[in-house]
Every structure is written in structure tokens, then in C-alpha cells.
């Protein structure tokens, strides 16, 4: 189990440094009924992330023979596809980052973040699910982690426990502002500054992350095929 978790941890880092989910939690916390909505967001995020990782692992575990060695062709193709998607995203983010640097200004807060103040609990849960499934960065990391877990071919209970540990570790940066607010009540002054920093450096963080993981996925896929 330890080896499987170690193989998954690099993908946890990709989720940890993804700024938009953290910014969304902060926006929820400073909105009306923020603590309740942020709690719904966190719970949905953890549940959906766990389900995706464990679901992919179950599919891989059934598809891959227990006696198989090396990386199968289908996994190499998946890695290549993830690498291409991440590198394409890196180019798009780089263009936005260069525009931001030319204007020397902050990026405007995305429209969907402005709408967080009026979200119901159900819509907040839906937002968390969308940020996981529709965000190519988070989705790629969860798929890659699920593949790594499935390839380890652990017993069912160890599969579930490893998926839980991965999900919690990958969500620590998003859980931090929620925990600060709920446990200490000291987020009022800190949260707006955190949100400002995340939005200001969103493009830079996303570019370097997508570039690095895009190259990692691409090299893994090419090495397996060659």
C-alpha cells in the first residue's frame, strides 16, 4: 500500500498547487452563509475525488492481468493523451499569463466566482463536482492516480484506504482556509489576502504545473511505447 501511495503522491502535488479550487473555497467562506456552503463544497470535493480515483483503480485492476509485467499499450496511450492535453493547456495559460504581465494588472475575478454569494447548497455541491470533472488539470491528476492505484492491484480494503489518504493529502491546501475559519474564526482578514494572491499568480502556477506534468505524462507514454 505504501508503494502505491508513493506512486500517487506526485499527482497529489498537481492538485495541491491548483489555485482555482482554493480560491473558490475562500470566496465561499466570505460569502453569505459561507461556512455552511464551504463545508458542502469540501465534502463534495472529497467524495467525488475519492470516487473517481477508486473507480478508475477498479477498472484498471479488472482490465490488467495480475501476472502482467511492464506498462500495457493502452496505459501508454492514456499517458500520451494526458500529456498532450496538459501541454496544450500550458500554451493557453502561457498566452493569458503574458497578457497579464503586459498589462501589469490583476486579473479580474472570474464571473462564476462572483456568483458564489447566491449559490444554494445543491449548486455549491454541483460546483465542486464540475471543478473536479471539467477541470482538465484536476481530472488528469485523479485519472493518473487511479491508474497508479489500479496497477498496484491491492486488496479492496487497501485500495479504498489508499484512495482516502490520497484524496485527503491532495486536498490539504483547499482544506486549510476552511479549517482556519471553522476552528479558529480568524479567516476574516487572512482570506481576502489569500484570494488576491491566488488570483494574481493563478496563471503562473497553472502554467508551470501543466508544463511539468505534461512533460512527465508525455515521457512516460513515449517510454512505454518505445
Automatic annotation (TrEMBL):
Pfam families the UniProt entry points to:
SfLAP
Q: Keyword S-adenosyl-L-methionine, does the record have it?
A: no
Source taxon at top rank: Bacteria
Q: Which residues cross the membrane?
A: 6-31, 43-64, 76-97, 127-149, 161-185, 197-219
Q: Which UniProt keywords apply?
A: Membrane, Transmembrane, Transmembrane helix
Which InterPro entries does its entry note?
A: Gap/Sap
The keyword Lipoprotein belongs to this UniProt entry's keyword annotation:
no
The entry's protein name is GAP family protein
Q: What is the lineage of its organism?
A: Bacteria, Bacillati, Actinomycetota, Actinomycetes, Glycomycetales
Amino acid at each position: 500500500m505504501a508503494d502505491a501511495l508513493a506512486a500517487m503522491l506526485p499527482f497529489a502535488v498537481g492538485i495541491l498547487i491548483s489555485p482555482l479550487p482554493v480560491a473558490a473555497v475562500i470566496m465561499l467562506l466570505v460569502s453569505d452563509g459561507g461556512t455552511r456552503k464551504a463545508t458542502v463544497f469540501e465534502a463534495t470535493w472529497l467524495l467525488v475525488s475519492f470516487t473517481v480515483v477508486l473507480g478508475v483503480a477498479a477498472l484498471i485492476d479488472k482490465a490488467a492481468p495480475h501476472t502482467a509485467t511492464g506498462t500495457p499499450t493502452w496505459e501508454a496511450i492514456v499517458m500520451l493523451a494526458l500529456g498532450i492535453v496538459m501541454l496544450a493547456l500550458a500554451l493557453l495559460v502561457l498566452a493569458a499569463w503574458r497578457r497579464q504581465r503586459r498589462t501589469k494588472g490583476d486579473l479580474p475575478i472570474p464571473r462564476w466566482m462572483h456568483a458564489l454569494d447566491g449559490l444554494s447548497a445543491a449548486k455549491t455541491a454541483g460546483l465542486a463536482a464540475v471543478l473536479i470533472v471539467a477541470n482538465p488539470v484536476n481530472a488528469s491528476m485523479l485519472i493518473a492516480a487511479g491508474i497508479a492505484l489500479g496497477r498496484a492491484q491491492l486488496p479492496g480494503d487497501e485500495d479504498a484506504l489508499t484512495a482516502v489518504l490520497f484524496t485527503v493529502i491532495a486536498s490539504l491546501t483547499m482544506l486549510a482556509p476552511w479549517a482556519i475559519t471553522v476552528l479558529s474564526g480568524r479567516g476574516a482578514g487572512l482570506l481576502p489576502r489569500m484570494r488576491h494572491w491566488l488570483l494574481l499568480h493563478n496563471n503562473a502556477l497553472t502554467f508551470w504545473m501543466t508544463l511539468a506534468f505534461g512533460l512527465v505524462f508525455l515521457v512516460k507514454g513515449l517510454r512505454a511505447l518505445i
